[in-house]
TrEMBL record:
GO molecular function, one term: FMN binding
Gene3D superfamilies: 3.40.50.360
Pfam families, alphabetized: Flavodoxin_4
Species annotation: Clostridium folliculivorans
InterPro entries linked to this entry: Flavodoxin/NO_synth, Flavoprotein-like_sf
Cross-referenced PANTHER family: EXPORTED PROTEIN-RELATED, FLAVODOXIN-LIKE DOMAIN-CONTAINING PROTEIN
UniProt domain Flavodoxin-like: residue ranges: 3-151
UniProt protein name: Flavodoxin
Amino acid sequence: MSKTLIVYYSLFQNTKKLALEISEQTGGTVIELIPEKKYSFDYNTAAKEVRSEISRGYCPKLISGNESIEDYETIFIGSPNWFKTVAPPVMSFLRQHDFSGKTVIPFCTHGGGGFGQIEKDIANECSGATMLSGLAVNGVGKPEEIINWLKISGVQL
C-alpha cells in the first residue's frame, strides 16, 4: 500500500483534476470526499448554500472519506477556495481524523483568491502534524507546475 494519500473535495472538477495529477506524480491513493447531501451544480445556488454552511461551522456527513488514514504517512488535502477557506466536506474530513505524526500538504484551486485562509485552517485542524508548503492553482494547473512544487516541497517522487 502506498504511504501517500490524496484526499479532496471538488464540485466543478478542477480540484479533482489537480488531485489526480498529484496522484499521478506521487503514486498516492486517492479518496474523493463525498457529502451525503450534494451541492447544487448551479454556481449561485451552491455559493449561497456554502456561505451559510461556513458561517455556521457546519460539517456535512460524508459518505466517502471516512476511511482510516492510519497507514498513511503523507496526506495531501485538497479543496476549492470557498470564501477564503476549505469546503465544508473537507472540514468534516479534518475533524474526523487524527493527523498526529503525519505530514500534511494542502492544495487548492481558486478563481483568483489564492489560498485565502486555507493553509491556516488546515493547520489548525491538524495539530501534531508536520505541515509542508501547499499549492494554490488558478483553475487546474499544469503538470510541470505540480512537479516543480512537489520537488520544492521535498515530496518523494
